């Protein structure tokens, strides 16, 4: 058995355990059990495992609030009144423990709302324990605080909130049989159940757990047991703990005793390096993943065949025919993409905005590529909690230089001169949109007392990373970008714009953009299901090899789709390709948003307004970043294609 480093939960090397009194300094007997946040598929709002009632005394003088004693931040505005207010915040009331030895969460864990705390459950290596009392909670009818705690427990049970525990840096799993006797192991187990027994409108709390420690794995069986005498608990009883749907009567007492039993079972067939396999193997979908890859490959082969046909036959013949024309009159009689050579590199409208979006899109592309590469190498495994989000955020901050460079180069090629505005917009616009959305979501989580709310100090740290690291790096990249000579195009631009002929329905901008996102989305929609499950349903995502392959297929598909549509539009003598190339592949994000709505309606059982707002708020952040990513891929593929074909044709 092995355990990660006690306070950090980050050490990924085995730690030796031994019986108490039999070991040395190289092994330990105490096996720490940590508790994490509680969450559910029926709400986006997670909560900490235990946070006792917290009371703030607020003295308000002339409308100014002064918090006298509190460890919660409140914002209170009551004009022209002098009074003292006591505010009580209610949280899940499980067994308390000393939280001073809590592991330090990394940036990704804080953003995701993970709050890992020590638990009151004490485990000694190879020491079986039976029906040990963790604590006893007493609720008295008529006590407002106790009634509020019971109401919150009942709400958590009705919404199917799940415990998430950690032993030896492994999730404590709840394994049960599904269809066709297939074992499924979930990384969470329910707080309790509602209407599962004979009495209707009664809540049953899982106040007892049977922990089975198999060397390198830990499994749990939650049970509801009514202990008649808290001092002499009987874990063999079959009567469950009942919490009535209404409030307790005045003076009526309800005792809830939390107990646990521990058994050890050696298993020499499981190696430490493969101890996660039983969780991952219990999650089906590997066959579906291969189907997803094959489906995407078929689309790529189809598009590649189309592009090859255009490049090797149509385009080759076009170039040969154009280069054989000697007479200017004959050239005027020709039709096709050569006729717009004098306008194809004409700077687009709102070139500043396009260059800014391309710079941010390049930043997101590099961030995604490097993160997936690290994930495939095993640096961002599920055992390294929060590492994936931390990697995303750190890379996004550090990749401000390519964003500034690309934005400056493109903007200078458009003939832009407002370089200060370009740099400021590149460093502020897209990150500002993401931060504003995130801040609004965080305000809602704050108001709900959720563990997912990012502390004020962390927000300050994020702002410091943005303005102290990302913005200066963007300025450095823009400095080098503006110092470079403008991009030289293979053909000159005419002074007078050419009139664009009437277009058919299929070559008009909007239909082409709408069609352009279909095939790239078709390559990724199966993979999206697993990604959304890992975000909203607490399922582990570990198939980064599949994801990297799908990302490569997405890049190829976006590029080929945009190049095809760009060629068709140029043949129709429509030279407005700059924005169209960005929006064609970027429109894949619209289909992503539609799929997220479908997932919300069919997979999740969210009903409350706050969770719905949070879901779509975070979805908008994801869709916006995906729009920048795919838009930049399509633009640069089309940019390369247009420069290539006009560099090989002779123009008088």
Automatic annotation (TrEMBL):
Keyword flag Signal: yes
Name the species this protein comes from. Timema tahoe
Q: Which GO terms describe its biological process?
A: protein localization to membrane
Q: Which residues cross the membrane?
A: 290-312, 356-380, 386-411, 423-446, 458-482, 513-536, 542-570, 582-601, 613-642
List the protein's name.
Transmembrane 9 superfamily member
Q: How does it sit in the membrane?
A: Multi-pass membrane protein
Q: Listed GO cellular component terms? A: membrane
Family to which this protein belongs: Belongs to the nonaspanin (TM9SF) (TC 9.A.2) family.
Q: Where in the cell is it found?
A: Membrane
What keywords is this UniProt entry annotated with? Membrane, Signal, Transmembrane, Transmembrane helix
- Keyword tRNA processing (UniProt): no
User: Principal place where this protein is found?
Assistant: membrane
Which InterPro entries has this protein been placed in? Answer: EMP70
